[in-house]
Fold this sequence. Notes:
By secondary structure, the chain is α+β, with helices and mostly antiparallel strands. The protein contains seven helices and three strands. β2 (171-179) and β3 form a beta hairpin.
Amino acid sequence: KKTEEKEKAEAEKKAKEEKEKAEQKRAETVVRVKKEIYFLGGTPILEFEVESDDQYIAALRKQIEELKIQKEAEEKEIAESIPEWFIKMPQGSDQIIYVRGTDISDDLQLSIDLATNAALRSLGKKLETRLNSKAKETVKQAGIGSNKASKSEFNRISSIVVKEVTVSGWEVYETKMVPLENGDYRSFILLKYPVGQALKAYKAEIDNSPELKGRLTLIKNTDAYK
Length: 226
């Protein structure tokens, strides 16, 4: 009898352990599948929305497949709507910079604004690179490379000019708005900016800088400044 009770207890213990392992495995699967749903931009259905535990994971996996189909359709729609000028931008030069931007919103005007901001961030980075290069060239030619205050002032001036550029001076060269199936809008925008305008503002800041006043003659004599 004791042997039977012992065997029964061991069987119950084993069954309990297997049940706990199964529950843990299921919980891990649910977490993993939910993460994939979030990654695809969806919200997992709630467990009480299905009839049984067994059906819940199947329902989540079905949701993933539906989200993938939706995402593929959206990507295809976006790919087909991208204008040629956005893919192959006009060639820039020493005088002109072209930058592009795109974004999505459920509000048409907001999608345009967001796309414009994306393009302006790109413009700011490009101009910052050009101005910093011009500053290094000027500092080197003027023979003031060892003066930290002057180098710091050139960097400050570059930042000021870049901020001004993102407010005005650029013009919309091309734009396109595309309504998406889910009710959102995607806007594409191409901006044109005359580099001379930034260099003119840059020169004016140098001329009016109290920090560079004592070295202005050296600076003005450089080919970079001229």
